[in-house]
Design goal:
This protein has nine helices and no strands. By secondary structure, the chain is an all-alpha fold. It has one domain. It is globular.
């Protein structure tokens, strides 16, 4: 059975920061794929499919080199985690196609606030006043970006809010899985399941990408695997 490492908040914060940079890169690539700059615009569901396929390929190559040992796979948790993640990335890629990249990325990054609130009923965690204050500041920032007035409100911004909520649920399931399986196993099973879900969802919308779009999809998958 996988034995989780002792908690290290400083190292975890560093990992989250670097992951955030990679996720920002994926939104930039998705913005390019969602435009007609490199060929016909790709549907957000096709972009998310490419994310899972190429991430799985990258991780499979890493597995061939590292030869990790796999333990028991908790398929139910993986399915719920990957479904949440697939919804999140699909909504995020849709959001960046309709609103400025900076706004979509900043709103999506409110997902730790959702994860914090969901962790109370779902994980039994306690949240102190300082973290509630930080969460409140983050929500105020998101409201500023949403600009919720009749004259300035952009409905597409709600796609980014939905993505943040979906990512919040995904974090909860990742936490549950992290105490049961190794990090590499979590990654490769997640992308295997995600590849199946996204392929079924994209069938009505799939089109042949241009060579440049294939390259961007590969870069997207690699960046998301790193994230």
């Amino acid at each position: 059975m996988f034995q989780p490492r002792p908690q290290n908040p400083a190292l975890a914060a560093a990992f989250i920061t670097v992951a955030g940079a990679f996720i920002a890169l994926t939104t930039l690539i998705a913005k390019a794929l969602g435009s007609d700059q490199f060929g016909d615009t790709l549907h957000p569901l096709q972009i998310s499919q490419g994310r899972f396929i190429f991430a799985f390929m990258a991780l499979s190559l890493a597995a061939a080199v590292l030869r990790p040992t796999f333990g028991k796979i908790h398929w139910g948790l993986h399915l719920t985690r990957t479904s949440s993640g697939w919804v999140g990335v699909s909504l995020m890629f849709a959001a960046v196609a309709y609103i400025p990249l900076a706004d979509a990325t900043a709103i999506t990054f409110v997902n730790p606030v959702f994860a914090m609130m969901l962790a109370i009923p779902l994980l039994g965690e306690r949240v102190g006043p300082i973290r509630w204050l930080a969460a409140g500041i983050a929500i105020i920032g998101a409201m500023v970006l949403l600009r919720p007035t009749p004259a300035t409100f952009q409905p597409a911004a709600l796609l980014a809010v939905g993505a943040a909520l979906a990512f919040g649920f995904e974090v909860i399931f990742i936490k549950k899985l992290a105490n049961r399986e190794s990090p590499f196993q979590l990654l490769i099973i997640n992308n295997l399941v995600g590849m199946g879900i996204s392929t079924l969802a994209v069938l009505p919308f799939w089109q042949i990408p241009s060579p440049e779009q294939w390259a961007l999809l590969a870069a997207l998958g690699a960046a998301m695997a790193c994230a």
